[in-house]
Amino acid sequence: MDQPAAPPPKRRRSWLLIVSLCLNIALIAGIALVVVRVAHRATEIGASGGALAPRALMTEVPGESARIQAVIDAHSARIRGLREASLRTRRDAWNVLSSPGYTPARLTAALGAIQTADAALETESIAMMNDSLATLTPPERQALVEKIRKRTNSWLFRLLRPRAH
User: Fold this and answer.
1) Cα-Cα-Cα-Cα dihedral sign, residues 150, 151, 156, 159
2) Who is most buried in 4, 40, 115, 140, counting CB within 10 A?
3) What is the DSSP string of 121-142?
4) Rounded CA gap, 51 and 88, in Å?
5) What is the mean pLDDT of each run of 10 residues along the chain (165 residues)?
6) CA–CA distance from 143 to each of 114, 130, 157 (Å)?
């Protein structure tokens, strides 16, 4: 006796597998994008500040690299000290919070110290950025503005830029 033929495979199952594969590929691409962005986060002095950061200016206007590096060097010691002070105030606030003698007034004072330290660091960083921009000639500044405008108007830049929540 002949055995009955096996029913043909259901097409729905193969479509689900294809959709699942596509979603997995998209997930892997998303994870890779996050890893790349985290790995390329700038932590050195002069790198924070986006397109107007001193190190970004050095790549955009290579002719002024030596003068911009001199500005970075002039501000580096003070910025390092202010970063250490900011970290120290955070550590102090944690110690206040975790101490047996905790009071809301002591924590408020510790958080105020964090705000003061962060403001001093930000002020120095902006001063360094301003000094770096001052090294550029008017035509160099105009060319920089045009490069940044072109870059920030691209669809890829808009897709990948951080979004405010």
Assistant:
1) negative
2) 140
3) HHHHHHHHHHHHHHTS-HHHHH
4) 29
5) 68 82 94 84 68 87 91 93 96 95 94 96 94 93 88 72 66
6) 38, 17, 19
